[in-house]
């Protein structure tokens, strides 16, 4: 995962401060230069990188730091805060993002062709199904032959009701029919999958606007391939300018995603990232939380992410003991045995990713 390389470079840059006999302005500048290079190589927008550099310089005044203060920690904290600020959409009113059981919400997914919309729609539906919602999927993609079959296949696997048509060619008509039908059936989360195009073009945006007018979505989610690099900012902005994007899902973060795209998408859409797609399978979908993401990027372990995974896979009666052991740093062989036994009951791909996450989170936590 290329994101790991960014993490390694950032950690290496911060470690160089520790190695310096005296931490002065020169050492800070050299460290910041390394950090900026790593971010630029990871496709973060130049303007954002410069913003981070200036932000850290503003937060850390080496000459004025009181004697006795751990300068390395102060710098590390400033870098951490600036990375979080970069990923902060600035949205304080998150009501739109909060779904409520038994209150119908219509969520429309938009994005370029192949970005992972259809896969993400099902992952999103499945995620909320596990939380007790009653989701349903509507296929408004009349552009790509086979799109309805794909959604149908995914929905059937996840046992989620779906709606689509082989005959109707107007996506606005299909989506309206689907939404109405599921509203009557009392579904509380109606997800509309729209079509994509190879590139941002007016016909795609016009179609999106028509579907949005037909279904009046409570939330529009922009799905972006995390590996598209420097093009991320412009792509995300083009979508935001066309429909009222309220949140972002970054997909393919398991592949060649350098992570920079994520930072750029937030800046362009001023919308928070809410989930990351980390594989083709239904459960390879992680809730996104800025601090957690940055912690992981800086090799600090992601204990809260691990908690989420545990809540998904460990039987409910065993969860309190396990969570308590992890929080107290008291992970015994018996606790580990219980965890791995539960993981073995999952599919092979999920096993690998969860085991990897567990080892990484526990390992990093142990080092701190
Ligand atoms: N590795 C990986 N592959 C993904 C992820 N999300 C989606 N994919 C794959 O990406 C490809 C495209 O996904 P789709 O869901 O068909 O994309 P789409 O945006 O709906 O495409 P259109 O309907 O043509 O617009 C598929 O092969 C998916 O399995 C992810 O998080 N990781």
UniProtKB/TrEMBL annotation:
Keywords of this entry: Cytoplasm, GTP-binding, Hydrolase, Nucleotide-binding, Ribonucleoprotein, RNA-binding, Signal recognition particle
Record-linked CDD domains: SRP54_G
One Pfam family it belongs to: SRP54
Alphabetical list of Gene3D superfamilies matching this protein: P-loop containing nucleotide triphosphate hydrolases, Signal recognition particle SRP54, nucleotide-binding domain
Species this chain originates from: Haematococcus lacustris (Green alga)
UniProt cross-references to InterPro entries, sorted A to Z: AAA+_ATPase, P-loop_NTPase, Signal_recog_part_SRP54_M_sf, Signal_recog_particl_SRP54_hlx, SRP/SRP_N, SRP54, SRP54_GTPase_dom, SRP54_N_sf
Lineage, uppermost ranks: Eukaryota, Viridiplantae, Chlorophyta, core chlorophytes, Chlorophyceae
Keyword Ribosomal protein assigned: no
Name of the protein in question: signal-recognition-particle GTPase
Quaternary structure annotation from Swiss-Prot or TrEMBL: Component of a signal recognition particle (SRP) complex that consists of a 7SL RNA molecule of 300 nucleotides and six protein subunits: SRP72, SRP68, SRP54, SRP19, SRP14 and SRP9.
Domain SRP54-type proteins GTP-binding: 272-285
């Amino acid at each position: 995962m290329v994101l790991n390389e960014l993490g390694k470079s950032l950690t290496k840059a911060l470690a160089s401060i520790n190695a310096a006999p005296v931490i002065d302005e020169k050492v800070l500048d050299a460290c910041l230069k390394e950090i900026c290079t790593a971010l630029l190589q990871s496709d973060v927008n130049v303007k954002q990188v410069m913003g981070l550099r200036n932000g850290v310089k503003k937060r850390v005044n080496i000459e004025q730091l009181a004697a006795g203060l751990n300068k390395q920690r102060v710098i590390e904290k400033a870098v951490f805060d600036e990375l979080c600020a970069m990923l902060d959409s600035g949205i304080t009113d998150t009501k739109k993002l909060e779904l409520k059981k038994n209150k119908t919400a219509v969520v429309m997914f938009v994005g370029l062709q192949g970005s992972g919309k259809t896969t993400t729609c099902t992952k999103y539906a499945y995620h909320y199904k596990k939380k007790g919602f009653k989701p349903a999927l509507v296929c408004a993609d009349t552009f790509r032959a086979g799109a309805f079959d794909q959604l149908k296949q995914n929905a059937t696997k996840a046992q989620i009701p779906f709606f689509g048509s082989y005959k109707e060619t107007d996506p606005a008509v299909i989506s309206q029919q689907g939404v109405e039908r599921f509203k009557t059936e009392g579904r509380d989360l109606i997800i509309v999958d729209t079509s994509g195009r190879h590139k941002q073009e007016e016909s795609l945006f016009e179609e999106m606007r028509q579907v949005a007018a037909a279904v009046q979505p409570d939330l529009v989610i922009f799905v972006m391939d995390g590996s598209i690099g420097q093009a991320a900012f412009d792509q995300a902005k083009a979508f935001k300018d066309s429909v009222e994007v309220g949140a972002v899902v970054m997909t393919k973060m398991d592949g060649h995603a350098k992570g920079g795209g994520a930072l750029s998408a937030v800046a362009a859409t001023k919308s928070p990232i809410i989930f990351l797609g980390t594989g083709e399978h239904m459960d390879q979908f992680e809730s996104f939380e800025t601090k957690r993401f940055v912690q992981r990027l800086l090799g600090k372990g992601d204990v809260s992410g691990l908690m989420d995974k545990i809540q998904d896979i460990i039987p409910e009666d065993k969860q309190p003991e396990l969570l308590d052991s992890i929080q107290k740093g008291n992970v015994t062989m018996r606790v580990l045995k219980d965890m791995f036994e539960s993981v073995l009951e999952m599919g092979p791909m999920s096993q690998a990713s969860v085991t990897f996450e567990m080892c990484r989170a526990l390992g990093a936590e142990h080092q701190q």
